[in-house]
């Protein structure tokens, strides 16, 4: 798969249209890597001139910051900003709402000012510009419910772009009882992904999966690699893997367009 | 002797208002114990929020039943205050229903009639509130932090309102002259028959007593505010005005940390250099919050504004799954501790004397703090724009940066970020491998 790096681009004296910030999950996690690849396929189909940082990318520091380690966060941020500014990056797109939030809201105060898009927003723009079409026949008739990631939804009030894209797939979008601003967290945010939950009587991802299952979906659509993992685990816990799939919106679009 | 009631009334008024003002000053002093934070930007937006959320109750109606009942009590409270104005004038000058002559029988009758209907509606709303709180099993009224005083406080407010509304109606019902005028007593006319057999004198005494208890009750209620979650009727306004306007996901970049990190990353900085003149004595900055004085004044005002409604807690994923964390409790603990610090300052002639306690551990446990997913559901849900998450985050910062007391797994995650640039133990050189798999 052709994924150019900023260093390659620079060597050729080129400046890409947008930087794809892959994020740690998108780079290393087996499930999330599929989302990264699906998104790159979409970028290719739309002829987007993009690049990644590759080995020059490092953790945004989001998890460290939410865990309370402001030192580590700012060190990561300043290192990343140095690299990004070195390449004169203006526009960034990412599939990870945590990176999205941090790059968009917390980096400017430390000297990193960029135009940052979540991949659902970016894809929506591609469609609006006539650069991409979504085939609405492949997935026709499927019941899809969308789980709002906290860091995309409540944190940044992006509720519509993912829904617009899902509607374009020609599927039936059904809402969970808790949706948009009242959506329930998948349980991964605030660095919870990296530790066991505190003592309680249930796991948060199981409760959220129950919300989703109430809508009797064929597919649970996500827009965040961490949500994806949490919901996938929830479905396994409920032993519903045979009936329900958990897919990122980028994967659904790649599938619909047979990429 | 003829002026005795007027003098007594004036005295009660001065005492009641005076005591209230004294407490409000204490309140403002306590809030100012917090660190400074600038919330004076973007005034039009702030004003708009205040009008929409505090005055317009826009977030209350998201839960329709309690929202509508609340609006009745709220509107009733504000409008019936016009009647209180009349009471005060009557009390001070010995007049009787001074507005009647002033506004004319027709309009005055309409006004009082309107008040009576409102009073009856408020009474009904308050009774429903009481039933919800005490009879129906609504989970958010039954959690741990709602035992004891918080529960009593909630009920006290309801009793106060019931009694005040009843007194208002009884006062009208026993006002013989007013009844005779037949100009507007749609509700109290049904109460009058209760006093049918009574002598005119007794009825007059009842009317006077109702009048006096009503106004004294209002003064007591005014002073009760400071000790109660009911303080929100005042603080909801500044609280929504000064609320955070930034995206909810945007956490502050601690400036003190920025300075240190810049120094650390600057190859020209000499770590052994003597601090510049005049800075030797500077107290090293404390990172994060372990006590209320480490929080900022908006967070402290938040604590005083909290109505303990529990909307935050009932939407908190950690709480919903049985974890110790309750954002409402975070706010209540902050207020309790702040009050304790305030009392300490009062007892020690204006300075705080270490009492060996702090917000962390003595009130809020690390277990609560670590259960938060930073999902912002509590912030979104709060009808008066309180931000419990910001307190949780500041306390986590203290735990991690001052005490290195993060859970073991988080320490591993942070070590990985430091060494490999990712929360997992992968080699940074493998960061692009995903592109060539499949
Ligand atoms: S931000 Fe934390 S405290 Fe607030 S609702 Fe989410 S998990 Fe609960
Ligand atoms: S913080 Fe807000 S939502 Fe939570 S109990 Fe207090 S007033 Fe209610």
Automatic annotation (TrEMBL), chain A:
Superkingdom, taxonomy of origin: Bacteria
Cysteine-rich domain spans which residues?
28-103, 144-231
**Coiled-coil portions:** none
Molecular-function GO terms, alphabetical: 4 iron, 4 sulfur cluster binding; metal ion binding; oxidoreductase activity
InterPro entries of this UniProt entry? Cys_rich_dom (IPR004017), HdrC_iron-sulfur_subunit (IPR051460)
Keywords assigned by UniProt? Answer: 4Fe-4S, Iron, Iron-sulfur, Metal-binding, Oxidoreductase
| Pfam families cross-referenced by the UniProt entry | CCG
PANTHER family to which the protein is assigned, alphabetical: IRON-SULFUR-BINDING OXIDOREDUCTASE FADF-RELATED (PTHR43255:SF1), IRON-SULFUR-BINDING OXIDOREDUCTASE FADF-RELATED-RELATED (PTHR43255)
The name of this protein is: CoB--CoM heterodisulfide reductase
Look up and give the organism this protein is from. Polaribacter butkevichii
Automatic annotation (TrEMBL), chain B:
Q: Name one GO molecular function term.
A: oxidoreductase activity
Q: Which residues form the 4Fe-4S ferredoxin-type domain?
A: 297-328, 360-394
Q: Do you know which InterPro entries this protein is assigned to?
A: 4Fe4S_Fe-S-bd (IPR017896), 4Fe4S_Fe_S_CS (IPR017900), HdrC_iron-sulfur_subunit (IPR051460), Helical_ferredxn (IPR009051), NarG-like_sf (IPR036197)
Q: Which residues cross the membrane?
A: 6-24, 68-89, 109-131, 156-174, 209-227
Question: GO CC terms on record?
Answer: plasma membrane
> What keywords would UniProt list here?
4Fe-4S, Iron, Iron-sulfur, Membrane, Metal-binding, Oxidoreductase, Transmembrane, Transmembrane helix
Coiled-coil portions: none
What would be one Pfam family of this protein? Fer4_9
Name recorded for this polypeptide: Fe-S oxidoreductase
């Amino acid at each position: 798969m052709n994924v150019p790096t900023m260093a390659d681009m620079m060597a050729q004296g080129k400046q890409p249209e947008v930087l794809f910030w892959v994020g740690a999950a998108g780079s290393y996690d087996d499930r999330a890597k599929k989302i990264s690849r699906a998104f790159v396929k979409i970028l290719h189909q739309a002829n987007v001139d993009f690049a990644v940082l590759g080995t020059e990318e490092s953790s945004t520091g989001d998890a460290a910051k939410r865990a309370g380690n402001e030192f580590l966060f700012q060190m990561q941020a300043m290192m990343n900003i140095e690299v990004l500014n070195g390449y004169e990056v203006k526009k960034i797109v990412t599939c990870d709402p945590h990176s999205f939030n941090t790059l968009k809201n917390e980096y400017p105060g430390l000297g990193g000012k960029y135009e940052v898009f979540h991949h659902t927003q970016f894809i929506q723009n591609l469609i609006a510009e006539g650069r991409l079409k979504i085939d609405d026949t492949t997935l026709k008739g499927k019941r899809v419910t969308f789980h709002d990631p906290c860091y995309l939804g409540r944190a940044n009030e992006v509720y519509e772009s993912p829904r617009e894209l899902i509607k374009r797939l020609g599927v039936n979008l059904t809402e969970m009882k808790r949706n948009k601003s009242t959506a329930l967290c998948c349980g991964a945010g605030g660095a919870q992904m990296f530790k066991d939950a505190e003592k309680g009587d249930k796991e948060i991802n199981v409760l959220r999966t129950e919300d989703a299952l109430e809508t009797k979906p064929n597919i649970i659509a996500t827009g965040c690699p961490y949500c994806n993992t949490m919901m996938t685990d929830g479905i396994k816990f409920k032993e519903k893997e045979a009936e329900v799939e958990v897919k990122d919106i980028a994967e659904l679009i790649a599938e619909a367009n047979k990429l | 002797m003829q002026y005795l009631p007027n003098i007594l009334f004036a005295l009660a008024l001065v005492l009641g208002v005076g005591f209230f003002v004294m407490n409000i000053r204490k309140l403002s002093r306590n809030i100012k114990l917090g660190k400074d934070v600038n919330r004076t930007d973007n005034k039009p937006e702030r004003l708009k929020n205040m009008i929409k959320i505090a005055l317009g109750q826009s977030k209350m109606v998201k839960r329709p039943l309690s929202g509508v009942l609340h609006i009745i009590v709220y509107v009733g409270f504000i409008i019936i205050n016009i009647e209180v104005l009349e009471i005060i004038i009557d009390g001070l000058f010995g007049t009787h229903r001074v507005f009647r002559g002033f506004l004319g029988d027709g309009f005055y009758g309409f006004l009082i009639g309107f008040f009576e209907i409102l009073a009856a509606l408020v009474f009904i709303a308050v009774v429903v509130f009481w039933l919800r709180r005490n009879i129906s099993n609504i989970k958010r009224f039954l959690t741990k932090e709602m035992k004891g005083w918080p529960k009593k406080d909630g009920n006290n407010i309801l009793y106060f309102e019931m009694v005040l509304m009843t007194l208002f109606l009884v006062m009208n019902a026993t006002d013989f002259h007013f009844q005779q005028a037949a100009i507007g007593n749609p509700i109290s006319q049904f109460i009058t028959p209760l006093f049918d057999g009574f002598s005119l004198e007794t009825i007059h005494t009842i009317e006077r007593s109702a009048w006096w208890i009503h106004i004294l009750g209002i003064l007591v209620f005014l002073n009760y505010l400071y000790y109660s979650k009911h303080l929100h009727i005042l603080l909801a306004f500044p609280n929504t005005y000064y609320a955070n306007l930034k995206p909810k996901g945007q956490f502050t970049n601690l400036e003190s940390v920025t300075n240190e990190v810049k120094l650390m990353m600057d190859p020209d900085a000499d770590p052994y250099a003597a601090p510049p003149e005049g800075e030797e004595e500077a107290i090293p900055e404390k990172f994060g919050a372990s006590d209320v004085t480490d929080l900022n004044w908006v967070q402290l005002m938040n604590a005083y504004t909290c109505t303990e409604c529990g909307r935050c807690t009932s939407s908190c994923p950690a709480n919903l799954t049985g974890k110790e964390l309750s954002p409402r409790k975070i706010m209540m603990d902050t207020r309790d501790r702040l009050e304790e610090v305030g009392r300490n300052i009062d007892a020690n002639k204006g300075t705080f004397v270490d009492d060996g306690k702090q917000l962390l551990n003595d009130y809020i446990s690390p277990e609560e703090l670590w259960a938060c997913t930073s999902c912002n559901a509590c912030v979104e849900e709060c009808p008066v724009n309180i931000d419990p998450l910001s307190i949780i985050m500041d306390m986590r910062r203290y735990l991690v940066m001052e005490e290195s007391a993060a859970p073991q797994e988080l320490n591993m995650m942070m070590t990985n970020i430091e060494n490999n640039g990712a929360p997992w133990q992968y080699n940074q050189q493998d960061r692009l491998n995903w592109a060539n798999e499949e």
